[in-house]
């Protein structure tokens, strides 16, 4: 699992590459914690994300909570049909701005 972070003046983008299972979620947790301090808009680009477990979903929720506390915005972009199904079953489609 890899997280590639890019920043510009208006947004931070975290591109998620690979499978976000429980072990991967533990490994990338420090990087995801650093993202809690983003300013403005955080884009989670899931184009190359092949799988997400409940541990991965928990990381998304942590970022959402941090954004809500600071008035920031999170956009989840480019999710596959499989991940969209997981988001639909768990109610995440209603929690995030999905593009």
Describe this structure in words.
There is one protein chain. This protein is an alpha/beta fold and 99 residues long. It has a single domain (2-98), classed as 2-Layer Sandwich (Transcription Regulator spoIIAA), CATH 3.30.750. Helix content is 41%, strand content 35%. It has helices spanning 22-35, 54-70, 81-90; strands at residues 2-7, 11-20, 41-52, 73-77, 97-98. A five-stranded mixed β-sheet has the order 1-2-3-4-5. The longest helix is centred in the middle third of the chain and has 17 residues, at 54-70. The two termini are 22 Å apart.
Query: Please, what is the average pLDDT?
Result: 95
- Tell me the structural class: alpha/beta
Strand order of the largest sheet: 1-2-3-4-5
Q: Tell me, what is the CATH class?
A: Alpha Beta
Number of domains: 1
Number of helices: 3
Q: Judging from the principal axes of the Cα atoms, what is the shape?
A: globular
Could you list the spans in which at least 5 consecutive residues all have pLDDT below 50? none
Name the helix and strand elements from N-terminus to C-terminus, one letter apiece: EEHEHEHE
Strand content: 35-45%
Concise synopsis of the structure shown:
This protein is an alpha/beta fold and 99 residues long.
Essential attributes:
single chain; 99 residues; alpha/beta; Transcription Regulator spoIIAA; five-stranded mixed β-sheet; 3 helices; 5 strands; 35% strand
List the helices and strands and how they pair.
Layout: E1 2-7, E2 11-20, H1 22-35, E3 41-52, H2 54-70, E4 73-77, H3 81-90, E5 97-98
Parallel strand pairs: 2-3, 3-4, 4-5
Antiparallel strand pairs: 1-2
Helix pairs in contact: 1-2
């Amino acid at each position: 699992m890899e997280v590639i972070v890019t920043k510009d003046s208006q947004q931070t983008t975290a591109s998620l590459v690979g499978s976000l299972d429980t072990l991967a979620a533990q490994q990338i947790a420090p990087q995801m914690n650093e993202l809690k301090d983003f300013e403005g808009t955080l884009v989670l680009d899931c184009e190359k994300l092949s799988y997400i477990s409940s541990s991965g979903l928990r990381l998304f929720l942590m970022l959402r909570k941090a954004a809500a506390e600071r008035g920031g915005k999170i956009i989840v972009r480019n999710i596959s049909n499989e991940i969209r199904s997981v988001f639909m079953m768990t109610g995440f489609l209603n929690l995030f701005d999905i593009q």
